[in-house]
Amino acid sequence: MANTLFQQQMPKLSKDNYESWSIQIKVLFGSQDLWELVTDGYTEPTQQEEAAYTADEKKTLKEQRKKDKKALFLLYQGLDESTFEKVAEAPNSKQAWEILATIFQGVDRVKRIRLQNLRGEFEALHMKEGEAVSDYFSRLLVIINGLKRNGEKIDDIRVIEKSVERKIGHSSKTLSCTFSISFFVSSTFAHDFSIVGYSPDDLTSMDRLIDLFESCMSKHGKTYQSFEEKLHKFEVFKDNLKHIDDRNKKVSNYWLGLNEFADLSYEEFKKMYLGLKAELPKRRRESPEEFTYRDVLDLPKSVVWRKKGAVTNVKNQGSCGSCWAFSTIAAVEGINQIVTGNLTSLSEQELIDCDTTFNHGCNGGLMDYAFSFIISNGGLHKEENYPYLMEEGTCDERKGVFDGHCGTELDHGVAAVGFGSTKGLDYIIVKNSWGSKWGEKGYIRMKRNNGKPQGLCGIYKMASYPTKKK
């Protein structure tokens, strides 16, 4: 039992960890009263000398041999096969330890020299005049990776500080992108990409810049898979902040700030969030003219449909390029409220899953095609009945009034919970007991007034209901 415990706890020796490994072994052997034997050894007598030993001397020799074998056994547990072969012929633990020290301390000295050189390169590294940010960043990563391979622990903040020792604001990028807005009319327009608080003083101090980055990423729950990714994101964040500050100095009718997208480059943002496919083939009836106001009299000075109750809460498309579906739904929700007075949140997911003739789900689409789909589909599910997944799913078209073939031999009981009519079809609302994934969230609308006394599927044959007195 004791040997098994030691085997599980023994630290493993590698070419890169001799110094720390030897410290752990010293502590372990000291706790087992073995370390003095390993460092000082013991004298192994000849057979003739041992024969002349007293009983006490023989007892002491036996204990020393036993402890030495125990020390050797424990040492072996921390060695791989190739290293074990180097000490397998050592007659005692002292010699085995000295062999390991000779082999690995030489390696350790080389590593210390290499680390010293890499530390010097790290401290001396500066961005060259005219050097591209990506080239400087690549040189920095080579040194960082070398330090890590040789066991150096590098503080994240120190490396980020090094990455911004170049002049802040160097090679700032102008970011632009195109958004599509559909607001009760389907229209598109170009708009500068704004990465939306900060203080201009944050750009004057490296520490403040780093603190701002850490604070912003923490606020939005951002985490990164590797240190290299974090450095890349910091570079992007810094360039975006410089763009924001430059723009805020030049314009006065709006102000930019930082938001959850501040660590994304334009290409990353475009790939994850922009889904308008303006290059899709146009419908034949589409007018080549852009939208213009005409035949309109007495326009009000302003219209805010949010205050008029025609706009649902802001939704989040996530990293799915489904903006075309969200803008379409916003327009339909709005016009529906304006005409009927009812504001109903509709399903973007249904468009993503089912409108696939011309549109492409999370890979983009066009609002015109989405409007046509809604018309041909006879409307859309409510959002609560077909919730958003932030990814493409399977089209769930389990809806409508059922009038298909079924027998009248009864083998299942259900509950009728209402009735109504749609598109000239009268129906009974039936509550089933097969879970909410069946039918229309667990319900089915079955055709009534089908001309048969037993009703569709024999639903009238054994109808029963309770009554209750007050």
Automatic annotation (TrEMBL):
Keyword RNA-binding recorded: no
Membrane-crossing segments per the record: none
UniProt-listed InterPro entries: Papain-like_cys_pep_sf, Pept_asp_AS, Pept_cys_AS, Pept_his_AS, Peptidase_C1A, Peptidase_C1A_C, Peptidase_C1A_papain-like, Prot_inhib_I29
Domain of life: Eukaryota
Domain Peptidase C1A papain C-terminal positions: 299-467
Residues covered by the Cathepsin propeptide inhibitor domain: 213-269
PROSITE patterns given in the database record: THIOL_PROTEASE_ASN (PS00640), THIOL_PROTEASE_CYS (PS00139), THIOL_PROTEASE_HIS (PS00639)
Keyword Lipid biosynthesis: no
Keyword list, A-Z: Disulfide bond
GO terms for MF: cysteine-type peptidase activity
Biological process, per Gene Ontology: proteolysis
Family in the record: Belongs to the peptidase C1 family.
Name under which the protein is recorded: DUF4219 domain-containing protein
Organism annotation: Nyssa sinensis
